[in-house]
Design a protein that fits this description.
Layout: H1 7-13, H2 44-48, E1 57-63, E2 66-72, H3 78-85, E3 104-107, E4 110-113, E5 126-128, H4 141-148, H5 158-171, H6 177-183, H7 195-208, H8 217-220
Parallel strand pairs: 1-5
Antiparallel strand pairs: 1-2, 3-4, 3-5
Helix pairs in contact: 4-7
The structure holds FE2/S2 (inorganic) cluster (2 copies).
C-alpha cells in the first residue's frame, strides 16, 4: 500500500517523507517506519503483533444434549472449541477453509462446517456432533449404513460425511442417487470414490422409511 497517497494519511500527517535514515517498516524496506502510526495514531504493531493480553468471552451452548459454557478468545473457531475445549475429537479438521467438510456438525438442526463459524457465533445454539448421534447404544441408521455398506476406508471424512447425510435424510428420506451425491458434495473423500458412501446413504434412507435396505452390491454381483 502506498501510504503517501492515502487521504487518511495526508489528513493525519500531511505528505509523508521517506527519510533514508529512519529505519524500515514491517513489510518491506520501502515502507517508512513512521507508517506504523500513520492512521491517526493507529498502532499497527500493537494490533497485529503478538497479543500482549487476551480478551476472553463467555459462550454457552448445548452440545449433544449437554449444557456447556467456557471462556474463549473471540477468534476461536467452533471446530476448535468442540475439539479442544470439549474434547469431542470425532469432529475432524481437514482444511480449515470450508472446502473439505470434515468438520461438519449440526447447529440448530442445520449441517454447518464448523471451521467457518466462530464459537461465539454459536452462543446459545444447540449443537449435534458425531458423538451425539447414536442413541441408547444404537447406531443412527446412517452410521449403520456406513458400517453395512463399507462406506469408509481411512475414516477421516466419515464423521462430517455422516453428519451431512443425516441432514440430507432429515429433509428428504427418499433421495435419488443424484440427490445423495448433491447432498454430500460439500464433503470430500480421498479414499472411497464415493460409491459405497452413496450406497450407505441409500441403506440409511430405507431404514429411516422403515423399509428393507437394498442388498449390497457384492450380493448383486455389481
Ligand atoms: S475443516 Fe472445515 S471444511 Fe475442511
Ligand atoms: S474414507 Fe478416507 S477420506 Fe474418506
Amino acid at each position: 500500500m502506498d501510504y503517501e497517497s492515502t487521504a487518511l494519511t495526508r489528513l493525519s500527517y500531511g505528505p509523508l517523507r521517506r527519510p533514508k535514515d529512519k529505519g524500515v517498516g514491517p513489510h518491506n524496506d520501502k515502507t517508512p517506519a513512521r507508517t506504523v502510526t500513520a492512521f491517526g495514531g493507529f498502532d499497527r504493531f500493537k494490533t497485529f503483533g503478538p497479543p500482549t493480553e487476551r480478551t476472553l468471552m463467555e459462550v454457552s451452548m448445548t452440545v449433544n444434549g449437554r449444557a456447556v459454557s467456557a471462556e474463549v478468545e473471540p477468534r476461536t473457531l467452533l471446530v476448535h472449541f468442540i475439539r479442544e475445549n470439549l474434547r469431542l475429537t470425532g469432529t475432524h479438521v481437514g482444511c480449515e477453509t470450508g472446502y473439505c467438510g470434515a468438520c461438519t456438525v449440526h447447529v440448530d438442526g442445520k449441517a454447518v462446517k464448523s471451521c467457518t463459524m466462530l464459537a461465539v457465533q454459536a452462543d446459545g445454539a444447540t449443537i449435534l456432533t458425531i458423538e451425539g448421534l447414536a442413541a441408547n447404544g444404537q447406531l443412527h441408521p446412517v452410521q449403520e449404513g456406513f458400517w453395512e455398506r463399507h462406506g469408509l476406508q481411512c475414516g477421516f471424512c466419515t464423521p462430517g460425511m455422516i453428519m451431512s447425510a443425516v441432514a440430507l435424510l432429515e429433509q428428504n428420506n427418499n433421495p435419488s442417487e443424484d440427490e445423495i451425491r448433491h447432498g454430500i458434495e460439500g464433503n470430500l473423500c480421498r479414499c472411497t470414490g464415493y460409491h459405497n458412501i452413496v450406497r450407505a446413504v441409500e441403506y440409511a434412507g430405507a431404514k429411516v422409511r422403515g423399509e428393507e435396505p437394498p442388498p449390497p452390491d457384492w450380493e448383486r454381483g455389481e
